[in-house]
Amino acid sequence: MAASWVKSLTVLALGLATVCAQAQPQAAGYPNRPIKLIVTVPPGGAADFIARLLASKLSASMGQTVVVENKAGASGALAADFVAKSAPDGYTLLQSSITTHGIGPHLMTKLPYDPVASFTPVTMLASLPLIMTVNADLKVNTLAEFLALARERPGKLAFASSGNGGAPHMAGELLKAAASVDMLHAPYRGSGPAVTDLVGGQVQVMFDGAPSLLPHITSGKIRTLAAASPRRNPLLPQVPTFAELGLPTVNIALWYGLMAPAGTPPEIIARINREVNQALKSPDVVERFAAQGTEPLGGSPEQAAAYVKQELDRWGPVVKRAGVVAN
């Protein structure tokens, strides 16, 4: 399967670099009707926040309403399949993620679409680094103390996640491998109930983006031990990174991109790319992203394709080593 992705990415890169010799009629007058932005999760949360903020900016700049549609299910495969099978005319777009185009394809033996060949990357959108937190009743104040406790109680400490195979789950698997500790994975249906049980002490550990955890960190109900990012999280500058603590491979973020169905005319891809990059640089978007601990990305279609290849290559061995399979 990995070899087919490499071949598909090579073909894709050549296609992205080629300017069509003939104008395609679908591109004329684009856009002249509403555009659908398909999101892989229910309303609420980081992905939905990013999609709705960008939809508002694009609606104003492109002169047509950009409508966010939430199609949750099957770890993002439901939404991705819908977009993959949509007309390649620029009116149906996918907010891709680490789940749909990083981890997820390695969890499922069969997908109804090709994660590379079925899509044309438009640009990257944003990155939301994860942090590691523990319930305040757990008698540890540092990562070193936590790891010592985990080794004393192998398989007894439970780490919550928003679902099997998601980034918070994989963060726990990265820590288990890097530090040679055994923890029990407790998957939930979404971040909300997982955070609730972390605060309540039903589980002891959780990796997630800062926005969902900050209120409980501030209240003292949970404690932050480390940031799973190359740099310290700007919302929690006092918290060291895993790299600073000697575990550089525990580096993971929720990331989001934008994709169109394969075969979408280059002129349309270029127009959307230009508008999105402009929106990501606008002061109000930068400010609202920063308040959520989110980093705007942007870039070219070629850069987005390279990012996806990097993520697909990275997560295959991690998923295999952890023995994770789709529910």
Description:
With 327 residues, this protein is an alpha/beta fold. It has two domains: 195 residues, 3-Layer(aba) Sandwich (D-Maltodextrin-Binding Protein, domain 2); 100 residues, Periplasmic binding protein-like II (D-Maltodextrin-Binding Protein, domain 2). Helix content is 43%, strand content 20%. The chain contains eleven helices and ten strands. Strands 1, 2, 3, 4, 5, 6, 7, 8, 9 and 10 form a ten-stranded mixed sheet that branches. Strand 1, helix 2 and strand 2 form a beta-alpha-beta unit. It starts with a helix and ends in a 5-residue tail after the last helix. About 3% of the residues have low confidence.
Globally, the shape reads globular
CATH topology of the largest domain: D-Maltodextrin-Binding Protein, domain 2
CATH superfamily of the largest domain: Bordetella uptake gene, domain 1
Number of β-strand runs:
10
Tell me about the biggest sheet?
10 strands, mixed
Helix content: 40-55%
Number of helices: 11
Helix/strand-derived category reads alpha/beta
Cα-based radius of gyration, to the nearest Å = 20 Å
Structure keywords:
alpha/beta; 11 helices; 43% helix; ten-stranded mixed β-sheet; 327 residues; D-Maltodextrin-Binding Protein, domain 2; single chain
Present the secondary structure layout:
Elements: H1 2-17, E1 35-39, H2 45-62, E2 66-70, H3 77-84, E3 92-97, H4 98-107, E4 119-135, H5 143-152, E5 158-161, H6 167-179, E6 184-187, H7 191-200, E7 205-209, H8 210-219, E8 222-228, E9 253-261, H9 266-281, H10 283-291, E10 295-296, H11 301-322
Parallel strand pairs: 1-2, 1-3, 5-6, 5-7
Antiparallel strand pairs: 3-9, 4-7, 4-8, 4-9, 4-10
Helix pairs in contact: 1-11, 2-9, 4-11
